[in-house]
User: Fold this.
Amino acid sequence: MVHQTFYRLPDDKKERILAAAHREFAGLTYEKTSINRILAEANIPKGSFYQYFDDKSDLFYLCIYSVYEKIIAFRACCKESLLGAGLLRMMKLGYDKGYEIFSSDMQKILDEEDFALFNNMLQAPAAIRNYVQMNIASELIAPVFKEELKSDPAVRKDIDYDYYAYLLSLTEVLPADYGARTGRTLDETIYLGFEYMKSIYNNITR
Amino acid sequence: MVHQTFYRLPDDKKERILAAAHREFAGLTYEKTSINRILAEANIPKGSFYQYFDDKSDLFYLCIYSVYEKIIAFRACCKESLLGAGLLRMMKLGYDKGYEIFSSDMQKILDEEDFALFNNMLQAPAAIRNYVQMNIASELIAPVFKEELKSDPAVRKDIDYDYYAYLLSLTEVLPADYGARTGRTLDETIYLGFEYMKSIYNNITR
DNA sequence: GCACCGATGTGACTTTAGTCACATTATATT
DNA sequence: AATATAATGTGACTAAAGTCACATCGGTGC
Assistant:
């Protein structure tokens, strides 16, 4: 868990830590990265690190978080695109098409370092990757779904919006995890995500 | 990942490692446990460890796996109990009641050390806990669901049994994760598990 | 027998994570 | 301003993880 002490830090110190972490996590696989090196780079004493974070995964998560923030921000400011249209509408328009656009958008939104960071997340040890992805889903993606559920007239009004937004936010993570376990290709898992989403969505519409 | 070299090892060596690991993981919180100590206890050189496992979480997972095997085995040999009746039928009989029985069964099935180990898993760092639980779900629980889906006449025959069994196997993990994030009580998440299961199940029945 | 080769064993060694007692700085109180 | 109290800074230190060059074993072919 990221401690409050980190957020209370003067901006330049935060920046220094995040910049050094960004570079480290973008340049090496998760296992090869080193807190020691990040701290040396950012000129932060060892002891301080553990007042800000529990461990390396916290800092990694923060970096990935910033990448996803860019994606979400982009998504919010181009409501016209399929990606901007909301995932529930995307579902109706055809999941495959949506994913295609999503992938190419990714490269437009993210700079080289962010993109490398993103890929290193995908190749991090399963436990770390899963942890990060679940966190991102529930903290960044679920809120978007919640709004969409609330404004969707087909959705029943008596449901627990937070919970179903949470479940829907896992539309990418779960099929990806399943695919990784069973050695499926990415293309195959896209359809599975559609199936999952449909299950959840059907259960809350009249 | 657990390497094949471990499984090829002579039984007594495997036993020694597992026994020492069992004791360590049952006696201390995950973060306090030490590979060094386990290896000293089991009389295994350091270098060997990394020929068998990637890291501590592998060994931890193996221990938890053995605990769940006992639970599953117990479940399989007492088809009369609600727990043995299959989770799909349990759903119809009432999820709450089922969970109650499940909890008390746990203490009957597991000895003190296993029970302590199980609790330490629940209190391990989120990334580790989640990783272990997802693995257990997809490797031990999903196969049980798969059989139940195949023999359930209400379930459509054209579905991907493996995938839906996987999704159903997460009936406990996902609500628990959601509950932990939103500070819900265990009782509250039980109902949420029911909701989730219903969503998935409805989508594959005619 | 011996020469070969892949798999496994081994523990000293390097690097990393994580701790802790004490120092310093900020904030509140009188 | 002086004092008390809480929050943060600090880096040497301990214990842990993880590596690696070399040793040993077990089988296969000749």
Observations:
- Chain B has a mean pLDDT of 88.
- The two ends of chain B are 39 Å apart (CA to CA).
- Chain B is about 75% helix and 0% strand.
- Chain B has one domain: 4-204.
